[in-house]
Specification:
The structure holds 2 protein chains of 2 kinds. Chain A is α/β, with parallel strands linked by helices. Chain A has one domain: 3-Layer(aba) Sandwich (Rossmann fold), CATH 3.40.50. Chain A contains 11 helices and 10 strands. In chain A, the strands form 2 sheets. Chain A has a 6-stranded mixed beta sheet, sandwiched between helices. A 4-stranded antiparallel beta sheet of chain A has the order 2-1-4-5. In chain A, helix 4 packs across helix 5. The N terminus of chain A is likely disordered. By secondary structure, chain B is mainly α. Chain B contains 12 helices and no strands. In chain B, helix 3 packs antiparallel against helix 4 and helix 4 packs antiparallel against helix 9. The longest helix of chain B is centred in the middle third of the chain and has 29 residues. Chain B is globular and about 70 Å long. The chains are: A alpha/beta, B mainly alpha. Chains A and B meet through helix 3, strand 6, helix 4 and helix 5 of A and helix 1, helix 5 and helix 6 of B.
Chain lengths: 272, 273
């Protein structure tokens, strides 16, 4: 078994985590760890098991076998403790379009048990930081894709989680919206020291944001290192795209469940 | 942005034990009620059905005098039944919003928050009761205009409010259970249609239990709607009387509520898997 001290010092410690759906092994005895304050990027083709992994790490899906420790808490034994320590930005646009930006933040703050006085301060600060103060009274369905993403990041940070999970944070965003989201992610990291685990199909995003990149393929990690080392391994002028293709033997458009692709498309459509 | 003075989450004093539990429960309800305030169209469309039942069905059968109602007019007799029906029909499809919000990723966000699962279930039950109270006001209004002999005593009204809220909470939570089991909108709509009419007809809403064949009588005695209607008939109408006894009505409703909340809390996380 793993040593206890190691498990305690890492923000994320994945211990032989496995999830089966019938005969299919979506995540197969996965092991890796992530240091506090680091940004960890998970690449891989559709159907590689990334979303299943994130669902397990955020306690939405119980593992078939193995476990993980998030901020020192075992997610099988103490899922409630884990939930107090994490934030989650899902792949879907999960801000409620029928509520205003202010209301979305208010409900999140209350669900996270933040009392009234503190709530007002943190919400005002989040709106300002995410450059949404001027539209906070508008319903979110009128927001642009970039604004919705920034709102969601603000929602997920109100309780100051020590680990933030982001499932394809910039999917469907135009280049300038994408850059503004990246800038906010970097600032969160600087300001709060948040550990971030994100999945992405965008190699530039991985290159820009991540200290460590892992390539997931068929439920296991095919490679894991800093972007620079991974690129050097593949060739002198290699990009992360080359790394991806090298380790998965596939382009990102291949494989994957129909449902994954459909969901990404509908997210993209809703972003306009 | 400086956070040096920010207090850690667990250092906050709560005014009383359970304050956070209530805050989380009401936050779930608040999200839904705020949406209803932004777009109240749904409340108005729900008013159509009780109007048809009271105005057409009630008026016609009132003249037929075919159903023994124990000394009160048939219109008076079915008014509590139509109130209960209106609440039932509103609540029984409530679970589809859970499937809808699951597809949008909203449910996932709630489940990743530290709010206990039971607050997510109870919060939805509360928002359903808020809708049901709007329906109650409306049914009272139509009944009043049709000269139904209503009781306006403060305890009568409080009892009606309690019975309406309990019924709405029971059937909306039952609807959540169905949503967690069927998981898709299409199947949910099918099941919802199949459930509604039997629940309605296997109750004392539009005819007394004494008219039913023995087997149907047995079914209606395990149907929470019968106890809700019985309580409403006692408290809402001048001359209305209880078949089961008002205490028993409320005990049965409370028991049904506890059962559906426990089951829904258990099943709720499975909606996202």
């Amino acid at each position: 078994m793993e040593n206890a001290p190691v498990a305690n010092t890492n923000a994320i410690e994945v211990l032989s985590l496995t999830r089966r759906f019938g005969a299919l092994v979506a995540v197969d005895h996965l092991k890796f760890s992530c240091a506090p304050g680091a940004t960890f990027g998970l690449l891989g083709p559709n159907g590689a098991g990334k979303s299943t992994l994130i669902k397990m790490l955020t306690t939405l899906l119980p593992p078939s076998e193995g476990t993980a420790k998030i901020a020192g808490f075992d997610l099988v034994q103490h899922p409630e403790a884990v939930r107090r320590k994490i934030g989650y930005v899902s792949q879907m646009l999960s801000a409620d379009g029928d509520l205003t930006g202010y209301e979305n933040l208010l409900i999140s703050a209350k669900l996270h048990g933040i009392p009234r006085a503190e709530r007002a301060r943190r919400m005002a600060q989040a709106l300002e930081f995410m450059d949404l103060a001027h539209v906070s009274g508008k319903r979110v369905r009128q927001y642009s894709g970039g604004m919705i993403r920034r709102l969601e990041i603000a929602q997920s940070m109100l309780h100051r989680p020590s680990v933030l999970f982001m499932d394809e944070p910039s999917v469907g965003l135009d280049p300038s919206a994408k850059r503004s989201v990246w800038e906010r992610i970097r600032e969160l990291r600087r300001e709060f020291g948040t550990t971030i685990l994100l999945t992405t199909h965008d190699m530039e995003e991985a290159d820009q944001l991540c200290d460590t990149v892992a390539v997931m393929h068929r439920g296991v990690l095919a490679a894991m290192d800093t972007p620079a080392v991974l690129k050097a391994q593949v060739g002198p002028a290699a990009t992360l795209d080359d790394v991806f293709i090298h380790f998965t033997g596939a382009t990102i458009s291949e494989g994957g469940e129909l449902r994954d692709v459909a969901r990404t498309r509908s997210t993209t459509q809703r972003l306009g | 942005m400086s956070l040096a003075h920010e207090a850690p989450l667990n250092a906050w004093d709560e005014p009383f034990p359970g304050a956070n539990y209530l805050r989380q429960t009401f936050a779930v309800a608040e999200a839904d009620i705020r949406k209803l305030i932004h777009d109240p169209v749904e409340l108005f469309t729900r008013m159509v059905q009780p109007v048809l039942w009271l105005l057409i069905f009630g008026q016609v059968f009132n003249r037929a005098r075919a159903i023994p109602t124990g000394g009160i007019s048939y219109l008076d007799f079915i008014s509590p039944g139509i109130l209960a029906q209106s609440v039932l029909f509103g609540a029984i499809f409530y679970g589809i919003s859970l499937i809808w919000e699951r597809d949008l990723g909203i449910v996932q966000k709630f489940l990743v928050s530290p709010a206990p699962r039971s607050t997510l279930v109870l919060g939805r039950a509360i928002s359903s009761t808020a809708r049901s109270l709007c329906q109650m006001v409306f049914v009272y209004l139509i009944a009043f205009l049709l000269h139904v002999q209503l009781r306006f005593g403060i305890f009568d009204l409080a009892g009606v409010v309690a019975a309406v809220m309990l019924g709405s909470a029971i059937f909306s939570t039952f609807s959540l259970i169905v949503a967690c089991l069927v998981k898709s909108r299409e199947r949910f709509m099918g099941i919802g249609q199949v459930l509604t009419m039997p629940l309605f007809f296997a109750s004392n809403a539009i005819y007394p239990i004494s008219l039913m064949p023995a087997w149907l009588r047995a079914v209606s005695r395990v149907n929470p709607l019968s106890y809700q209607v019985d309580a409403l008939r006692t408290l809402m109408i001048v001359g209305g009387s209880s078949v089961f006894g008002i205490t028993r009505d409320f005990l049965m409703l409370l028991a049904a509520f506890v059962v559906v909340v426990v089951v829904a809390t258990k099943l709720y996380p499975s909606i996202v898997t």
